[in-house]
Amino acid sequence: MIEKKTLKIGILIGNFNCLENWELRIIERIILDKTLHLSLLIKDGRSKKENFNVTKKLKDLLKNKNIFNRILFKFQVLIEKSLFKVKSTVKKETIIKELNSIKTIYLNPKRKGFLDVFSKNDSEKVKSYDLDIILRHEFNIIRGDILKSSKFGIWSFHHADNSVNRGGPPAFWEILNNESVIGVTLQQLTPELDGGFIIDKAFYNRDWSYVRLQNRIFEASVTILFKNIKLLQNGHYNIEGSPVYYNPLYRKPKLIQLLQYIFNFYFSILEEYWKKVNFMTFGSRYNCWTLFIGNGSFLNSTLFRLRPVKMPKNEFWADPFIFNYNSKNYIFFENYNYKLKKGKISCGIIEGDQLIEVSDVLDLDYHLSYPFIFEEDNSIFLIPETSENNRLEIYRCIDFPNNWELYSTAFDGEKIIDAHIYRDQDMQKWLFLNKQETENTSYNSDLHIYKFNNLKFDDLQPHTKNPVIIDSKTARNGGAIFKSHNQLFRPSQGNIDGIYGKALNINKIEKLTINEYVEKTVMVAHPNFKEGLVAMHHLHQKNGLFVIDAAYAKK
């Protein structure tokens, strides 16, 4: 194994006590990684009076014609912050203690409006520390030779897709403009505002709360940063220029825009409350997933001809997998109980387009879903989604279909989602899964791949580009990989428009090695084939049959 080059990292940093949880996570990971060295902290050496003149700020505020907008916006943010708090995942005191031991220098750039212009002397001072990367977590828009004072420049987040949104506030305009997703751009800074060299981009589903969505993308930023640090260490550092930008520079919202956002925010809260009351009073099932069984190839099917599988009240059925046993086709699926708010694994025998002899397969103290079932070495195995138990679990069948024993576990302490196995033409085994990085991030955006040899998973080899996809539009698995006309396809969820599992993608796998993964979305199926459907997110194609799931808004 080739030893990774140790990277020397500097951080443009402010008051340690003001660091947010996501920033603390970045610092913690740098400190814990033996291939990274936090070599230098760069702080603002200008006096507090120069940086923050209270009297001038108050005068500017009173002169501002939008003073009511600003006060209303701040008030709304305070309300949302009280409702949606970021869970602390790092001990701030420990990190601050470490930071106090790091070499620190103070620089004095000249303030020109929103610009911080660094002198040649400042730039040379930083350059003398021979840094590989500088991370920006302080200062305004940076100008001067300091942009070139480390080998790979200054890396900075723009918490938006910089081809769609430049300016701010982060995560607000995507909600107001009903964007399908919100982007995060990791860039190497240039003199152009939010238009630096693009290192990478990631995409996340929209939300109806500005503060909650902002928290989510801040926390998720950590993943894209360390993915690209790892790529840099492996000799893969590719940057490209920002594309043409044709939208306005976004600023704080005007009153009419703010009122529109506030109306939608409180309407969403009332809508969620009404759903709970309606369920408790009338038993109405919201986002009710059900199964649809078809013959032939899904790729050429006519979905409006399908009939939903009949199922009991107070349940929904989702995440179906087909399995043939003793010449009978079974479907294993998540059976979710609305009252218990917990899923179990059930199965039934396919008869026409319905299921018969439905029985429970696996019912544990924690939520289960996505029951990937397969054969290996003359045994039958099941990998249900067990993220609530903070590990991946594999079960072996003792007596089909209802008796199973725990065979092995992996990823202890991690939230692993929707895992399945693929064996390629060279008999190499691959594990595809999604991960939730922390409690503050989403399940739906990061796809990881591992190579392995045995189901004890004691030899897992991570893909060198993990996570190979960071994009809620396509990342989360939506069923097992299947072959059609000698081509491989990976079904995946389209988590867009603020809706979980809004659409079903069919992605053609074009390259799969331990160092490369390339797929192309060739089809997106939307839940328009039955009245009342709002989502569809899973497909399993096998034995000349296919089964999908789709959700009714209310049933």
Structural notes for this entry:
By secondary structure, the protein is an alpha+beta fold. It is 21% helix and 40% strand. It contains nine helices and 32 strands. Strands 3-2-1-6-8-10-11 form a seven-stranded mixed β-sheet, with helices on one face. Strands 22, 23, 24, 25 and 26 form a five-stranded antiparallel β-sheet that branches. It has a four-stranded antiparallel β-sheet with strand order 14-15-16-17, with no helix packed on it. A hairpin with a 4-residue loop joins strand 29 (499-512) and strand 30 (517-525). The longest helix is centred in the middle third of the chain and has 28 residues, at 255-282. The protein is globular.
Helix content: 10-25%
Instruction: Specify the oligomeric state.
Output: single chain
Low-confidence parts: none
Lateral arrangement of strands in the main beta sheet: 3-2-1-6-8-10-11
Cα-atom radius of gyration? 26 Å
Number of helices: 9
Strand content: 35-45%
Main pleated-sheet profile: 7 strands, mixed
**Terminal residue distance:** 56 Å
Shape: globular
Question: How would you state the average pLDDT, rounded?
Answer: 94
What structural class is derived from the secondary structure elements? alpha+beta
- Number of β-strand runs: 32
